[in-house]
Amino acid sequence: MSEIDLDTARKVAHLARIAVPDDHLPALAQELSQMLTFMEALNEVDVDGVEPMTSVTPMRLKRRKDAVTDGDMQAKILSNAPDAREGFFAVPKVVE
After folding, report:
1. Calpha distance 1→60 (Å, rounded)
2. Which end of the chain is less enclosed by CB atoms within 10 A, N or C?
3. For residue 26, what are the contacts with CB-CB under 8 A and spacing of at least 6?
4. C-alpha to C-alpha distance for 78 and 72, rounded to whole angstroms
5. Over the chain, what is the mean pLDDT?
6. 1 pLDDT band (50/70/90 cuts)?
7. What whole-number distance in Å separates Cα of residue 93 and Cα of residue 84?
8. How many CA atoms lie within 13 A of 9 on its CB side?
9. pLDDT interval class at 19 (50, 70, 90)
10. What is the CA radius of gyration of the chain?
């Protein structure tokens, strides 16, 4: 079992940029110790043969129908352009 002392709790609070008054340090040290104890217990669990999970809930990506659309909307799309030439968007030159 890991025990966190007050100096370590103070240092952790400082690194986390959390202002912890001195009278709250014992409680923080105890909570941090409990977290470490829990992590040590998790390290003892046998996970051989268990596949890693990406989520705790089974999820599938939504799939759309792979269908050909009419496309051919060049004129309609270019009608929104402030400047279109020869079937393309015209933009100002950026590189000299």
Report:
1. 41
2. C
3. 6
4. 12
5. 89
6. low
7. 14
8. 22
9. very high
10. 30
Residue 24 in tokens: 């709250």
Amino acid at 64: R
Residue pair 37/67 in contact (Cβ under 8 Å)? The answer is no
DSSP string, the chain: -----HHHHHHHHHHTT----GGGHHHHHHHHHHHHHHHHHHHTS--TTPPP-S-SS----------------HHHHHTT-SSEETTEE-------
Orientation angle between helical segments 25-43 and 6-15, nearest 10 degrees:
90
- Residue located via tokens 């009419």: 70
Q: Who's near 25: CB < 8 A, 6+ residues apart?
A: 6, 9, 10, 13
